[in-house]
Amino acid sequence: MLSPMWNILIVFVTISVAYGKNDHVDLTQDWWETAVFYRIYVRSFMDSDGDGVGDINGITSRLEYLKEIGAEAAWLSPIFKSPMNDFGYDISDFYTIQPEYGSNDDFEQLLKKANELNIKIVLDFVPNHTSNESEWFIKSSSREEYYSDWYIWENGHIGHAGERQPPNNWVSSFGKSAWSYSPARDQYYLHQFGVAQPDLNYRNPVVVDEIKNIIKFWLEKGIAGLIMNSVNHVFEVDKDNYGGHYPDEPITGKPGLSPDDYGYLEHVYTKDQEETYELVSQLREVFDAISIRDNMTRIMMTNAYTNIKNAVKYYGDGILYGSHVPLNFVLIEDLDKYSDARDIKYAVDRWITYKPLRKQANWLTGDHDRSRVASRFRPELVDAFNMLVLLLPGIAITYMGEEIGMLDGFVPWSETKDPLACNTDDPVNFIEVSRDPVRTPFPWSNGKNSGFSMADRTWLPVGEGSEHLNVAHQRSAVRSHYQVYRALTNLRVRAAFKYGRLESLALNNDVFAFKRWHNDDTYVIVMNFGRTYQVVNLTSFDLVFGQLEVEVSSVLSSRTYNDNIPAGSVDLAANEALVLRMQA
Ligand SMILES: *[C@@H]1O[C@H](CO)[C@@H](O)[C@H](O)[C@H]1NC(C)=O
Ligand SMILES: *[C@@H]1O[C@H](CO)[C@@H](O)[C@H](O)[C@H]1NC(C)=O
Ligand SMILES: *[C@@H]1O[C@H](CO)[C@@H](O)[C@H](O)[C@H]1NC(C)=O
Ligand SMILES: CC(=O)N[C@H]1CO[C@H](CO)[C@@H](O)[C@@H]1O
């Protein structure tokens, strides 16, 4: 038996070997582990045929742009056949491409060109539900035997006045009852999102097999991965454990909410069920089988708005396989316009702390559902947030337009398309929930429809101010968000950012800084989230001293590349953000 002191010594030695020195870092990395993913909202990226709606050939024609800004993978919003009640998040045929976006041949062309440019293509997938126009749902509605059990069907109640009532109190995340009556079947179907998005029944093994077939089908076409969207909604509680009826969800008691609001209920029976992780593990095996066969990793990404412990469970636990990239929403959900440097540090640390030690982190600040950085925080902070996303360890995900600091567009009620907003029936307050402002056409230039389309009308209006805020303008400017973004993606190839470690500090309430280093190559990224001038001493970081050289500076900074700043005294203007490199 070793004495306790020996045990302590052994533990200490092991820790020093594992974590003490960068020389021991595993330098082999798969293509996705530190890749930049560029998220394209297909409808609004580039319209090639002049119908006012973005399409696949449009993307193909602009793939060089992704290369130019240093993106390594394009992540496309759903392109499958859909009646577009929820703009592709309501799929009616998972094997076919939406005709207004293009044909299967167009998609093959996209893959071919992406391959030539070494850009990976990943597709958004929606496993929770189909469109109500899916053949599966129509057959299920008429109780056709094979499909009868593919959706969540339930009898309603008859009220005192003889009126029909839904099976229970569940609310859709788009508001109002999550149950809709189908006269064809004389039963209610569950829809956790829109009325036109009936939930699939994952307790039916045939449904799971079909989903696996679809995943295989697209991976074999040569795509590099799929995102399992809203994956934490796929299971509802097992009603057999509740006497054959789905139980009511408890009321949150949050003030000011009506029984039609999603926040009215605690979603204990419709979200985050344990069976989800088992399903993810099964689906992951489909990805792995093809990856091994073709010697090219196909990644499974997962999207779940949930608490952090549930979120990181998607990494897998050694028994169940997990997702390669469980999306990390801390920079969205933990922050708002009142956040300061301490909140930023807390958010970053939270993900790093909860995620399994050896797994890759990922960072994002937005998507087609969330207000843009320039609007949610302020335009002056666009570069700082791009520095966070691109220089923190792991995978970087950019929603299209963040690289140029796009603002939320203004979409009046008369032109509103988002079902979430239309469901409010409220021409004033719809603006609080509408997702249209973050989906306005991408501004390529100051030409017609900001270069997005030759149509007379685009599906959503072009955002105001795009005469100035567009790619062409920022490309030719000496200083612009676009230029900063490119400089940042260029830096990512350096070992300090690919493999290096992370240390972060809130130097005061306004200034957040983090250090990335590998061997002797050390960088400090420092950003003033405040509105006043600040001076900070970066020697608070271990082994940071002497002179620091500016690698990248935010658009409004007075610093330029190669300027020298003493580590002991770094003065920062309001909103200024800098990437600094320690002089050897
Ligand atoms: C699907 O739902 C939409 C929205 O409620 C409705 O307009 C449409 O008629 C439905 N289609 C079918 C086939 O049930
Ligand atoms: C698989 O791919 C990797 C890198 O892409 C390569 O180094 C390796 O030799 C390949 N293995 C086989 C068996 O082809
Ligand atoms: C920065 O901090 C170091 C270490 O505490 C100190 O020696 C140095 O004087 C400080 N520099 C300035 C300019 O205050
Ligand atoms: C971020 C994201 O992908 N959000 C989607 C989640 O799923 C719902 C319903 O399918 C969509 O409406 C969201 O846009």
Automatic annotation (TrEMBL):
Its Enzyme Commission number? 3.2.1.20
Question: What are the alphabetically sorted keywords of the record?
Answer: Signal
Residues passing through the membrane, by range: none
**Keyword match Calcium:** no
For this UniProt entry, which residues form the secretion signal? 1-20
Catalyzed reactions per annotation: Hydrolysis of terminal, non-reducing (1->4)-linked alpha-D-glucose residues with release of alpha-D-glucose
Q: InterPro entries, alphabetically?
A: GH, GH13_cat_dom, Glyco_hydro_b, O16G_dom_2
Q: Top EC class per UniProt?
A: hydrolase
The protein's name: alpha-glucosidase
Q: Which species does this protein come from?
A: Chilo suppressalis
